[in-house]
Design a protein that fits this description.
The protein has about 270 residues and is an alpha/beta fold. Helix content is about 40%, strand content about 15%. It has a seven-stranded parallel β-sheet, with helices on both faces.
Length: about 270
């Protein structure tokens, strides 16, 4: 079944073959969605998990084998004009999107000993301002083009928990969690739902064997989280028919067994 055929998804932060963004693009394309994704090499080379050379082009070719249209671009979400630039390029390449997946992030270690204003500002610029401005610009363009004829989706990748080594990252992702519910109320009349997905610890290329060994006992299903777990949940939220239903607007854990996901849907 191609449940997303005719839909166009923008997915940010897709730069590595082992990343959650790549898994999301694959899952959405397999359901028939056209894909426009972004990546930002300077971050990957300086503070991310390293540059995966030419992966965006390779992924684009792979996704097209599913018979969908694909576009991508380098995009700096710390630039206040970045959100408008992304959507301008999306419209030029494919059209006005109906699905937005805010996957891009800035994540650099920060503890109480080294946290400073510059570090907070770098996290805020991408994780909060970039996400917020891209979401609201998406909604405004959706209203102009699709509001009377389509359903929209905004899905935010978030994180939380008592991690003392990532204070700036956790704080800014927490802001996105807090913002999601009121935004979902504001956009509901347009037919746009807004949700969070918190994948939990995910082996997307950053885990050492020691980290995996430490984390494994905390996973009740007996394995470390995979990018495909988050992608499955994102696709579920993108696909589900919400006529007369309300999906809880707070974060959804990606380690929920597939047969229990329907429990997160309740009558409005």
């Amino acid at each position: 079944m191609l449940n997303l055929k005719g839909k166009l998804a923008v997915v940010t932060g897709v730069s590595r073959r082992s990343g959650i963004g790549t898994a999301i693009c694959r899952a959405l394309a397999m359901e028939g969605a056209d894909i426009f994704f972004t990546h930002w090499t300077p971050y990957d080379s300086e503070e991310g998990c390293g540059v995966d050379a030419d992966w965006p082009n390779m992924l684009s070719e792979e996704l097209q084998t599913h018979g969908v249209r694909v576009g991508h671009m380098e995009a700096n979400l710390s630039d206040p004009e970045g959100p408008s630039i992304i959507l301008d390029h999306t419209e030029e390449a494919i059209g006005v999107p109906t699905i937005l997946v805010n996957n891009a992030c800035h994540c650099a270690p920060s503890t109480y000993l080294d946290l400073n204003a510059s570090m907070l500002d770098r996290h805020y610029a991408v994780n909060v301002r970039g996400t917020f401005l891209l979401s609201t610009e998406f909604a405004k363009r959706f209203e102009q083009k699709h509001a009377a004829s389509a359903k929209g989706r905004i899905i935010n990748l978030v994180s939380k928990g008592p991690d003392p080594n990532n204070l700036a990252y956790t704080a800014t992702k927490g802001a996105v969690i807090t913002w999601t519910e009121p935004l979902s109320v504001g956009l509901a009349p347009l037919g746009i739902t807004v949700n969070c997905v918190d994948p939990g610890p995910t082996d997307s290329g950053w885990m050492t064997e020691e980290i995996k060994k430490t984390l494994l006992p905390r996973f009740p299903m007996g394995r470390i989280g995979r990018p495909e777990d988050a992608a499955e949940l994102v696709t579920f939220l993108a696909e589900i028919n919400l006529n007369g239903l309300l999906v809880k607007s707070f974060d959804l854990r990606a380690d929920i067994p597939a047969d229990e996901k329907e429990r997160w849907v309740e009558s409005a």
